[in-house]
Every structure is written in C-alpha cells, then in structure tokens.
User: Which sequence fits this backbone?
C-alpha cells in the first residue's frame, strides 16, 4: 500500500478545501488535497448562475468562475492534489485511508487535517413521502448536476418541493431549457430563499409559489405521474380535505442540506446540534490537529463566507503544526457557547479561555424570521455583556458577528455564553 | 370640479435589499409617470430600470464538441434586455463550441445583435 506523508492533508477540493490549501501553502507547509470527484472545484462548478463573490472579489461571478479563480491559484502555487480519490477512513491519530483507481488503497499520514467535505442533500426517504418508488424523483442538486454538467434533462414537467434558493434557481433553469415547472411547493408560510430569486426565478416566469403546503403522496409505479399536495396548519399537520393533485413527470426535492460527517463521526470526533463537528474558536474539532471549515462544519448561504472560514482554518492549521504539533498540551478552560432564545445553533461550540483576548467570529442562525430584533450575549449570571440591533433576521441568512470578549469586559470566571435574538424593548428606526 | 385620478400601471417588487418595497408606477391626469413606494434612492433607480428597460444576466450551458465534459457553463458579460432572453436561449441551444476553452473566452459575440457577449464561465480542456 502506497504511503504518503504531509504536513496538512485536506479532505475535499470544493470552495473550502481550495481556499484552505492556498493558506497552508502560503504558510510554508506541505499540503495534499484529496478529492473524490473527477476535477477540482466542488459544488460551485454546477451552480452556473451568478451572485457569487460579492464580498470576496467585489464582483458578481457565476459559481464556475468563482471556483476557477481558486483552481488557478492552486495550480499556480503547485499544490499537490489527487482526484477520483475517495477517503474511506480517518483515524484519531490523523491517518487517512483512501482509494483511487490507479493506486488502489493508499495511506496518508499528516500532522494536521482539514475537513472540507461539504454537505449532502436531504432525500425523500428522510422526509417520508408516501407512494411507490417510481423513477423521476430527484433532489434538486442532483438534477442541477445532470442538467448543468452531464447534459441530461431529468424530465419535462416538474413540481419542486422547497422554496430555498436551489429549488427556485432550478425552476428557472428548467424553464430556460424548455421544461414546464408547474409549481414550487413550500411547507412554511413564507418563501425560504432570497426575495431576488422569488422575483427573478418564479414571478418572472409565472411559476406559482404555493406556501403552507407539502407533498403528501407520490403517484405512479414505474414513472412518477403526479403528486398530491396538502395544506398544513401551524403545527405542520395535514389539513384534511385540502388535497390537490398536480400532474408531473418529475419531482425535485429541495428540502435541506446536511453536513457530510461520516468520516468525522467514525474518527471519534464529537458532533454538535447542527450535524457539524464541535469546534473551538480556532475551528479545531474535538480531535487535536483536525480542523473543519465550510459546509461540513455548518451549511453556509454565501460561498464568500465559506472562503473566509476556510482561510482561517488553513492559517490555524499552519499555526498548530508550527507551534503545537507533537507537544503535550491540554486544552483547558473553555467558555461554552449556547444557543438561546430564537437561535438554532452557534459556532464556535466553545472558546478557549486563553484566546479571550482575540477577535472571535461567531456564526449562528435564528429559528424564526422577524424584524427589529436585538442580538444579545449573556454570561453565566445572565448579565447582558454585548448586544447588537438587527433589522431583518431570517433562518435562511446566517448571522456573523466579530466580537472581542476581553474588550467587552467579560467576567474571567464566566464559563458559559448564551446568544439570543429577542424583540427590541423599544422601537427604533435605525440602520443595521 | 376636476377630479384627480391616478392609474396604477405597474407594481414592482424591489430586490435591492431584504425590505422588498413595492414600488407602484402611476400615471397622473397629465399623463406623467410617478413612482411611489420606494424608501431609498437605490430602490427608485432599480424600479425605473425595471420599468423602462428590464435587463437580466443570462447564464446557461453550451454543448462542447471534444471537451473533457459535454457542456461548458456560459454567461452574458453584461445584463441583456429581458425580452431578448428567449431569442438568446434559442441561439445558445443551437450552438456548439470546441475545446480547449479558457474562462472568459467569447463564444458568441454580440448575442442576438445586442452589446453583450456570451463568455465561458470556466476552463475546459480537450477530452483525453
């Protein structure tokens, strides 16, 4: 079995993996990227629409253009990578086992590892739609790959479940390829994705957005013939008698993304509430020397934020290898970060007390949308030590805050930080 | 007494920021157009553009004859008139290009007679 040794091994060559690799190389260390697909670039290769890079490059790029910028940088810096290489195991002592056609099983030993495996789509089985198992049921991302990269049309008449951005983008894409999109069905009472997409993907093409409905049956034995949709009440229970039938030959499911952490779990790392690994403020997981960034850590909305997070992971991995690797260190006192009222989850999961003097980047999502809210950080004694007004909050937009806990005079005895999003006590007209 | 009538001839949902103001376009009795409902300058500019000359960036794919992949993703290098989108899509659907391609290469110049070009969104090498 072929054996490789490197300073930093990176699993995944999508937006996160590529940006992290560039930082590691710039930091002067050896790096090796392992990618399961046939080329570098990851998911943005199939996101052929524009809207990427506003923060990172101050331009509005398409997904492939965004990827190409990083691919060019990786090649320019001569960063080694392996394609068509599937990592099958990651161990607690930072050994990776992977397979590819040329070499068979290979072993990669690294001083540090960066996890950048991205996420997978939630499927029909996971949401239990009744019916037989006819062909013609796909996840939206699957269909996007077929249409945009393989050159296959999955069908002619579509219903799309889920009004997140990927569902709406595919509605327009399929319309542009001559298909008929009958409806986008959304279980919540409001659209999940960006207003811009609702206008430019659905309203521009007269595609109905049916909110507070879900699909309760798939019809057809060999090929899907149509779907039954039902209204749902405030508890998301089906309203009897509200059923409608929509004829279609293809159903696309855009019902959520789940960080891809099989390897992480099997290595023995702790996973947290959001299905991503538990990390500290350095993006280091519960296994020393293993870092995580991008969608595998938390599902992002903007690839620019994936890039920023991945750069941090790269820099931190370099610092670890140069200063800590091989030394006997104990990660001691920590401050736990807990989601409070109306907060779904918080990253990082904890902060090392020794890092309290640094700027910490907090990322979190709300459970319910709302306007004129107040973000508050509370310490172990329920004192509010930091707050920030925010005009709009919505679950589909991740909130990022950079806070220096020392500057806000956190109590050194504090071992617990709660982040909540509440209504403002007074109504003020103010800018974000 | 003369009656003041204003007809709403269009309603535009602004997409510049999450507020999503609804801008109404009205005609007053002298036939002049009034824009109402925006709450910022960017919103007015957006609504005016959308009303007089709505434009969109077109993104799609073009078939590649001898590339590593069968399609290359493309975009217009500037927004094009919304009512020319269908013509552009028809043209794109019947075009075949050859690898190798570099990101930014012009694949169709002045698409459907407009100022904009169709350019490649990525590199694509020839098939092995």
Assistant:
């Amino acid at each position: 079995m072929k054996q490789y040794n490197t300073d930093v091994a990176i699993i995944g060559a999508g937006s996160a993996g590529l940006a992290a690799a560039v930082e590691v190389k710039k930091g002067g260390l050896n790096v090796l990227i392992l990618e399961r697909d046939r080329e570098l670039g990851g998911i943005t290769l199939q996101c052929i629409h524009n809207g990427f890079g506003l923060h990172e490059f101050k331009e509005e790029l398409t997904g492939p253009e965004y990827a190409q910028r990083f691919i060019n940088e990786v090649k320019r810096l001569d960063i080694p990578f392996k394609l068509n290489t599937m990592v099958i195991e990651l161990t607690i002592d930072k050994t990776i086992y992977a397979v590819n056609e040329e070499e068979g099983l290979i072993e990669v030993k690294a001083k540090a590892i960066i996890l950048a495996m991205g996420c997978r789509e939630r499927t029909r089985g996971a949401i239990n739609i009744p019916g037989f198992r006819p062909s013609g049921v796909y996840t939206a991302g699957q269909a996007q790959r077929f249409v945009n990269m393989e050159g296959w049309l999955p069908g002619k008449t579509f219903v799309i479940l889920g009004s997140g951005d990927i569902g709406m983008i595919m509605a327009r894409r399929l319309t542009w390829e001559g298909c008929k999109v009958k409806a986008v069905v959304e279980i919540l009472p409001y659209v999940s994705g960006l207003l811009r997409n609702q206008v430019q993907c659905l309203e521009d093409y007269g595609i109905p957005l049916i909110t507070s409905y879900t699909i309760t049956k798939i019809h057809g034995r060999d090929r899907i013939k149509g779907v039954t949709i039902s209204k749902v009440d405030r508890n998301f229970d089906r309203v009897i008698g509200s059923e409608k039938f929509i004829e279609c030959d293809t159903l696309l499911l855009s019902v959520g993304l789940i960080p891809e952490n099989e390897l992480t779990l099997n290595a023995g790392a702790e996973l947290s509430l959001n299905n991503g690994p538990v990390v500290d403020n350095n993006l280091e997981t519960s296994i020393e020397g293993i870092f995580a960034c991008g969608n595998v850590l938390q599902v992002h909305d903007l690839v620019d934020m994936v890039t920023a997070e991945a750069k941090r992971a790269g820099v931190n991995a370099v610092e670890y290898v140069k200063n800590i690797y091989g030394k006997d260190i104990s990660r001691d006192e920590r401050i736990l970060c807990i989601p409070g009222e109306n907060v779904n989850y918080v990253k990082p999961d904890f902060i090392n007390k020794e890092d309290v003097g640094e700027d910490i980047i907090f990322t979190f999502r709300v459970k319910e949308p709302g306007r004129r809210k107040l973000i508050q950080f509370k310490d172990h004694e329920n004192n509010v030590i930091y707050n920030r007004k925010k005009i709009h909050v919505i679950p589909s937009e991740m909130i990022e805050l950079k806070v220096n806990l020392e500057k806000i005079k956190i109590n050194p005895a504090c071992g617990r930080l709660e982040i909540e999003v509440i209504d403002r006590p007074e109504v003020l007209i103010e800018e974000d | 007494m003369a009656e003041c009538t204003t007809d709403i001839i269009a309603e535009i949902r602004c997409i510049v920021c999450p507020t999503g103001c609804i801008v109404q376009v009205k005609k007053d009795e002298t036939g002049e157009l009034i824009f109402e409902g925006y709450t910022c300058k960017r919103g007015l500019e957006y609504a005016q553009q959308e009303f007089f000359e709505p434009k969109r960036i077109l993104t799609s794919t073009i078939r590649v004859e001898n590339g590593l992949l069968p399609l290359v993703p493309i975009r217009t290098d500037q927004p094009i008139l919304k009512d020319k989108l269908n013509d552009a899509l028809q043209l794109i659907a019947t075009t075949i290009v050859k690898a190798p391609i570099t990101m930014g290469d012009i694949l169709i110049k002045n698409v459907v007679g407009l100022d904009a070009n169709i350019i490649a969104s990525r590199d694509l090498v020839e098939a092995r």
Remarks:
- The interface with chain A takes residues 13, 15, 18-20, 56-57, 59-61, 63, 68-71, 73-75, 82, 85, 89, 93, 103, 121-123 of chain B (CB under 8 Å).
- The beta strands of chain B are 7-13, 22-27, 33-36, 55-56, 59-64, 71-76, 80-81, 96-97, 106-108, 118-120.
